[in-house]
Amino acid sequence: MGALVRVVVIFTYVFSLLRISTGVDTITVNQLITDAETITSAGGSFELGFFSPANSKHRYLGIWYKKVSNRAVVWVANRENPLNDSSGVLKVTSQGILVVLDGANKTLWSSTSSRPAQDPNAQLLDSGNLVMKNGNDGNPENFLWQSFDYPCNTLLPGMKLGWNRVTGLDRYLSSWKSADDPSIGTFTYGIDPSGSPQIFVRNGSAVTFRSGPWNGIRFSGYPHFTPNPVYTYDFVLNEKEIYFIYYLVNSSLLSRLVLTPEGYAQRFTWIDEKGEWVQYSSVQKDDCDNYAICGANGICKIDQSPKCECMKGFRPKFQSNWDMADWSNGCVRSTPLDCQKGDGFVKLSGVKLPDTRTSWFNESLNLKECASLCLRNCSCTAYVNSNISGGGSGCLLWFDDLIDIREFAENGQEFYVRMSASESDAFSSTNSSSKKKQKHVIVISISITGIVLLILVLTWYMLKKMKQQLKRKGYMEHNSDGGETCEGQERLELPLFELATLLNATNNFSSDNKLGEGGFGPVYKGILEDGEEIAVKRLSKTSRQGLKEFKNEVESIAKLQHRNLVKLLGCCICGREKMLIYEYLPNKSLDLFIFDQIRGIVLDWPKRFLIINGIARGLLYLHQDSRLRIIHRDLKAENVLLDNDMNPKISDFGIARSFGGNETGASTTRVAGTLGYMSPEYASEGLYSTKSDVYSFGVLVLEIVSGKRNRGFSHPNHDLNLLGHAWTLYIEGGSSKFIDASIANTYNLSEVLRSINVGLLCVQRFPDDRPSMHSVVLMLSSEGALPQPKEPCFFTDRSMMEVNSSSGSHATITQLEAR
Ligand SMILES: *[C@@H]1O[C@H](CO)[C@@H](O)[C@H](O)[C@H]1NC(C)=O
Ligand SMILES: *[C@@H]1O[C@H](CO)[C@@H](O)[C@H](O)[C@H]1NC(C)=O
Ligand SMILES: *[C@@H]1O[C@H](CO)[C@@H](O)[C@H](O)[C@H]1NC(C)=O
Ligand SMILES: *[C@@H]1O[C@H](CO)[C@@H](O)[C@H](O)[C@H]1NC(C)=O
Ligand SMILES: *[C@@H]1O[C@H](CO)[C@@H](O)[C@H](O)[C@H]1NC(C)=O
Ligand SMILES: *[C@@H]1O[C@H](CO)[C@@H](O)[C@H](O)[C@H]1NC(C)=O
Ligand SMILES: *[C@@H]1O[C@H](CO)[C@@H](O)[C@H](O)[C@H]1NC(C)=O
Ligand SMILES: *[C@@H]1O[C@H](CO)[C@@H](O)[C@H](O)[C@H]1NC(C)=O
């Protein structure tokens, strides 16, 4: 190992002797930097040129520390497109764009520019920032481009980690695949702006570490952020920006923060005496830093065995799992909250504040106002000062389960957890005698009025109970078994769920378990006794659909079996309650990824192409391969769910229609579907067929490629909708401009162009022009030339959307037509 390191060091040293340093820090238009040349920043701190990582033959353009023998690369340009030889060159175009070209003048990487350039030139600053300037304009506000805005795995002093809220630019670190391969690995380190902003380390989409919110002094989860001899830090949060930044105390020190290929954010500092980089600190310290290790409402204590315990007033949700160190299901309240009775709070000290992604804060409230605000809102679960500096100010509220709490030996925070009145009394052990006296008085007066009230309430309650029993009997009249089984279920070829099971699994359909609102009514997450996770769709009682139609529908869906359709596990019909039970898909729906800049990165192009193909096959099955011909009528990103491996599954058959034999379509007077995805003939005339699903599929493909919603799309240069925009670029041969920036580094051009072409074929104005799903599947997988699409009717489409939305319809029109 030591020998290997030495060989590498010697190699890099010899290698650097062979280089010709141009001795300048600037590249002007059309000046070439070849593989053998480098440029050096004015103070001699950083060098830019081509390099190969330790055990790799590939060549990359990068920036590294110049002054030390182990030159640690801090930034890489063509990390996804390496050179195989030393033919690479770097140059600045007259538009002010940096390009890395290979021997055949093919562009392997290029920078971007949003402003016109005059006399552009690129300069390597002594901070390690490679900037594109107009002439001698050194004002950072005016830079055309800077490498600090496009970090790789290293955060250098003075670099912003976080968001420009005006432009939407998100600067985050992404790990190398391995020490030998700078291409994008699975880990990211960046700021999540939702709720009170926090830094997250993610593995793909899964959070592995959370910094906690900024508390005015440090991130709640970084107790070791204390004044130190190496660096100072700051966190900025305003309307324009959210970012974390650090500076070196003594600029002659070298220190950098790196996200390793294994997903650790570590600080390395150069120690001259040792001649090596030494790990100075690590963001992740111990097991308790693993995100949510103790589940909801659990608290992690590192010097205790077992590590996890429930917070005061909570007990394990599944005691037997908990005892076997499976803490993932977390804890639930020992006594449920009762907002009407008046709850109290219990103070927890020395901890890392729970996940604040769904929290709320206001900097101008004080702690007292904060407590009363929390008490007034029945879904509020905890509160705290949002800013602990200067004695404490501001108000931060939680509304959900409290997740990812740990105890710290020092620099932990205190916060207040809502408890039912009885529990909070038990814990806060009021020890003042005057309070006790008061209590006695209150107790006596309550007892007297209580007895009177009790008699009244009891009478009322018994009457009500009798009424309910009569009602329930009515429901069960024609049920042979009586008891818990519900009527009519025996005729369905589906597993039956009892109402009690579902009530138990979903915590009595608690709002905490609600996943969203589907076509029919709310959808809840549930966990069965055996631990299986399910999604329960509870049909709203106002649904016009009758029992018979509901059963027909369930039976037709139950017969569908395809890996790209969500699986129906069973149903439950109990009185007026009708419910469908589906498999639970943890990654939720496609829209959460493709329309989100952060999560969008998780879905790289290969995954998106698999998703496009999967949806196409699912739809083909509905249209053609299943026993019935089914038209989905509401295909959209929200209705494509993703399983653990990001496989797409079409869901929500709430308004699907099935047809026998040769029928291919029908018409309706009540148009149901979603604006932005409805084909013109369906939206305007109520005509639907398999080709209206094809249209929705086309819209979806264009959304997946572009990362933009069709509905609500706008462009600064024109008034076209997404389809019009795609079409215009296609005709101009500029389709590559249509591609989502999140997949800029991962896409395969021919697959993307093929997808755009297929998408445009699917959204053509006339149904007969659109391909069948059968042809779509073939076209997506073949290499052959594709037909040229006709112009989509995007102008009428936009005016139609306005007509529809002005008539008071929601984004999703979910009414069912009477059949
Ligand atoms: C390097 O070689 C690989 C495999 O032979 C090839 O796919 C790639 O396109 C080459 N890269 C360049 C820049 O020539
Ligand atoms: C690449 O471009 C340069 C300048 O535009 C030209 O001199 C050179 O011949 C080109 N090389 C190839 C292989 O096309
Ligand atoms: C990161 O996620 C991938 C895929 O889910 C998994 O295979 C891998 O083990 C994870 N890595 C770590 C270090 O947790
Ligand atoms: C910075 O560090 C250098 C070398 O360690 C030392 O000589 C110098 O005095 C330090 N400067 C300050 C301002 O502390
Ligand atoms: C915060 O609270 C203050 C005082 O109640 C109020 O004036 C202000 O609008 C609130 N700010 C936000 C963002 O809600
Ligand atoms: C409680 O707070 C949540 C989140 O801010 C809000 O959506 C809800 O309307 C509030 N409820 C009441 C009764 O104020
Ligand atoms: C936190 O409080 C301190 C002292 O009152 C104040 O100087 C600082 O600006 C506050 N920070 C934020 C983010 O409001
Ligand atoms: C309660 O108060 C009494 C006297 O007022 C004191 O002796 C006792 O230690 C207190 N108990 C607790 C638990 O603080």
TrEMBL record:
PROSITE patterns: BULB_LECTIN, PAN, PROTEIN_KINASE_DOM, PROTEIN_KINASE_ST
Keywords: ATP-binding, Disulfide bond, Glycoprotein, Kinase, Membrane, Nucleotide-binding, Phosphoprotein, Receptor, Serine/threonine-protein kinase, Signal, Transferase, Transmembrane, Transmembrane helix
Domain Protein kinase as annotated: residue spans: 509-794
Transmembrane segments: 441-463
InterPro entries for the chain: Bulb-type_lectin_dom (IPR001480), Bulb-type_lectin_dom_sf (IPR036426), Kinase-like_dom_sf (IPR011009), Pan_app (IPR003609), Prot_kinase_dom (IPR000719), S_locus_glycoprot_dom (IPR000858), Ser-Thr/Tyr_kinase_cat_dom (IPR001245), Ser/Thr_kinase_AS (IPR008271)
One record GO biological process: recognition of pollen
Domain Bulb-type lectin: 24-145
Biased composition (Polar residues): 111-126
Domain of life: Eukaryota
Catalytic activity: L-seryl-[protein] + ATP = O-phospho-L-seryl-[protein] + ADP + H(+); L-threonyl-[protein] + ATP = O-phospho-L-threonyl-[protein] + ADP + H(+)
Keyword Disulfide bond: yes
Annotated segments matching region Disordered: 111-131
Every Apple domain range: 339-420
EC number: 2.7.11.1
Endpoints of the signal sequence: 1-23
Molecular functions (GO terms): ATP binding; protein serine/threonine kinase activity
Pfam families, per database record: B_lectin (PF01453), PAN_2 (PF08276), PK_Tyr_Ser-Thr (PF07714), S_locus_glycop (PF00954)
PANTHER family: APPLE DOMAIN-CONTAINING PROTEIN (PTHR32444:SF183), BULB-TYPE LECTIN DOMAIN-CONTAINING PROTEIN (PTHR32444)
Family named by the database record: Belongs to the protein kinase superfamily. Ser/Thr protein kinase family.
UniProt-recorded name of the protein: Receptor-like serine/threonine-protein kinase
Species: Vitis rotundifolia
